[in-house]
Amino acid sequence: MGHEVTVFKPYPFAVGQKIRIEGSRRAGDWEVAASGEHTVTLRCPISKKQFEWPIFCYLVDEEKDSAWPRE
Q1: Exposed, middle or buried, 65 (CB in 10 Å: 0-12/13-18/19+)?
Q2: Model confidence over 2-30: pLDDT tens digits?
Q3: Coil, strand, or helix at residue 67?
Q4: What is the pTM of this model?
Q5: What is the phi-psi region of residue 66: left when phi exceeds 0, alpha when psi lies from -120 to 50, beta otherwise?
Q6: Are the C-beta atoms of residues 31 and 43 closer than 8 Å to each other?
Q7: Which of 30, 34, 57, 67 shows its CA 20 to 30 Å from the CA of 51?
Q8: Sign of the CA dihedral 37, 28, 44, 25?
């Protein structure tokens, strides 16, 4: 008998990609500055500060023609 299984995979970030994180302490708009096997470096589009974190994002939705960064 089969089961309903939810599968999560780390998101394959691309340098220069504009992203929005929701529902997390890292919530907000970011630009991908660097991406490695285990870490991602994100840049704030307002302050230009960069932060390197272990991979933590998973794809939920993609928006076309969306305002970025949000006010």
Answers
A1: exposed
A2: 887 777 778 889 999 999 988 888 999 99
A3: coil
A4: 0.78
A5: beta
A6: yes
A7: 67
A8: negative
